């Protein structure tokens, strides 16, 4: 197949390009090389792919490129929590408007192929929880008073008991808690509406905490694994927010790329899928694994600081992707963290 990958020069997108090329596809890439993510043109671009310096918000340019493409992998987006709410227009422009422009181009060219959209676990807000007495619960956002007082974990709304976190499934209603999360959910909605109206096959892959080589570094838009590794390489200890016991699902970028290949290859599946390892770890465990591999004489620092847009626990069940896409992660946590500690990230000036 000829497959168009948007954002294919980025962290996850470049791994998707590599996996598609290895799978024997003809790959076209569009990327604007946004300065917030790229200090310069990356050196890791796959020579077997064809690259176009195009802004994904440019409908006319996209129309020319999507003609003749059998499938599209839409990875282009601004990621992370950013700096503060002042980033809102950039997030909405690149994520929401960018997705709308791509869909407009697909509609104008009568595209009926396969569309895979990169979504995120952030659309869930808090993950799934269970009270031993009152069953499954969906906690609301944590207040400043709770966080200032170090009351990190949500409690049962009826009895006040501690809740037990559970793997989140795709059936959980979305509840985005920050600007980035809101834009990712809107991307999903737009893409799935496009599929229903045109008959195109659409899948949204809800990535959990992706890490691996080529992560951007030294930027407020980087992921937590990149932030911790950058600190260690500067000779500083990783600074952990809250008490470090927040649960997340860390999934390697190469496994995420394989999930995209599986989604693009399956013509029957539709809807939203968790792309997660199914093996949750705390933020402190992740920081400890990186510290042990890079600077074992140091110890991560638990700060008690917090970000209001963060959630406490969110992990994912990959069962639906296992069952319907035939996808299973291959890189376990210990192996992945050891290799990530040695592999290059995307350097900033």
Question: Which key terms come to mind for this protein?
Answer:
alpha/beta; three-stranded antiparallel β-sheet; 349 residues; single chain; seven-stranded parallel β-sheet
Describe this structure as you would to a colleague.
- This protein is of the alpha/beta class and 349 residues long.
- It is built from ten helices and 16 strands.
- It has helices at residues 11-22, 59-66, 88-108, 144-148, 179-198, 224-233, 253-265, 283-294, 319-325, 333-342; strands spanning 2-6, 26-31, 50-53, 71-74, 114-120, 128-131, 135-137, 164-166, 201-207, 209-211, 239-240, 247-248, 250-252, 271-275, 281-282, 301-302.
- The strands form five sheets. A seven-stranded parallel sheet has the order 3-2-1-4-5-9-14, sandwiched between helices. Strands 7-6-8 form a three-stranded antiparallel sheet, with no helix packed on it. Strands 10-13 form a two-stranded parallel ribbon.
- The longest helix has 21 residues, at 88-108.
- The chain starts with a strand and ends in a 7-residue tail after the last helix.
- The model has no long low-confidence stretch (mean pLDDT 93).
Overall shape: globular
Order of helices and strands: EHEEHEHEEEHEHEEHEEEHEEHEHH
Query: What is the number of strand segments?
Result: 16
Mean pLDDT reading: 93
Order of strands, widest sheet: 3-2-1-4-5-9-14
Distance between the termini: 37 Å
Low-confidence parts lasting 5 or more residues at pLDDT below 50? none
Classify the oligomer. Answer: single chain
Approximately how much beta-strand content do the residues carry?
Answer: 15-25%
Radius of gyration: 20 Å
Structural category: alpha/beta
How much helicity do the residues have? 25-40%
Number of helices: 10
Q: How would you characterize the largest beta sheet?
A: 7 strands, parallel
């Amino acid at each position: 197949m000829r497959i168009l990958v948007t954002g294919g020069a980025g962290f996850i997108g470049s791994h998707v390009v590599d996996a598609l090329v290895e799978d024997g596809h003809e790959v076209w890439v569009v990327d604007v090389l946004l300065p917030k993510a790229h200090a310069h043109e990356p050196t890791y671009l796959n020579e077997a792919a064809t690259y176009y310096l195009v802004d994904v918000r440019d409908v006319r340019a996209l129309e020319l490129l999507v003609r003749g493409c059998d499938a599209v992998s839409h990875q282009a987006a601004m990621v992370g929590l950013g700096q503060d709410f002042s980033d809102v227009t950039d997030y909405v422009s690149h994520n929401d408007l960018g997705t709308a422009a791509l869909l407009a181009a697909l509609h104008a060219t009568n595209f009926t192929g396969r569309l895979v959209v990169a979504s995120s676990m952030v659309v869930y807000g808090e993950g799934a929880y269970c009270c031993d007495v009152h069953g499954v619960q969906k906690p609301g956002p944590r207040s400043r008073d709770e966080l200032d007082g170090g009351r990190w974990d949500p409690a049962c709304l009826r009895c006040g008991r501690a809740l037990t976190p559970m793997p989140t499934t795709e059936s959980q209603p979305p509840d985005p808690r920050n600007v980035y999360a809101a834009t990712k959910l809107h991307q999903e909605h737009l893409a799935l509406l496009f599929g229903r109206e045109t008959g195109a096959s659409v899948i949204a892959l809800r990535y959990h905490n992706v890490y691996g080589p080529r992560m951007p570094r030294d930027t407020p838009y980087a992921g937590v694994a990149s932030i911790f590794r950058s600190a260690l390489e500067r000779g500083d200890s990783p600074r952990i927010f809250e008490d470090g016991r927040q649960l997340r699902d860390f999934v390697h970028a190469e496994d995420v790329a394989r999930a995209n290949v599986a989604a693009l290859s399956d013509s029957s599946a539709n809807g939203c899928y968790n792309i997660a390892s199914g093996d949750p770890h705390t933020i402190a465990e992740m920081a400890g694994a990186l510290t042990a591999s890079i600077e074992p004489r140091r110890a991560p620092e638990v700060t008690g600081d917090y970000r209001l847009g963060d959630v406490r626990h969110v992990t994912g069940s990959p069962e639906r992707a296992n069952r319907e896409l035939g996808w299973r992660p291959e890189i376990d946590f210990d192996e992945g963290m050891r290799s990530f500690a040695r592999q290059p990230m995307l350097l900033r000036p």
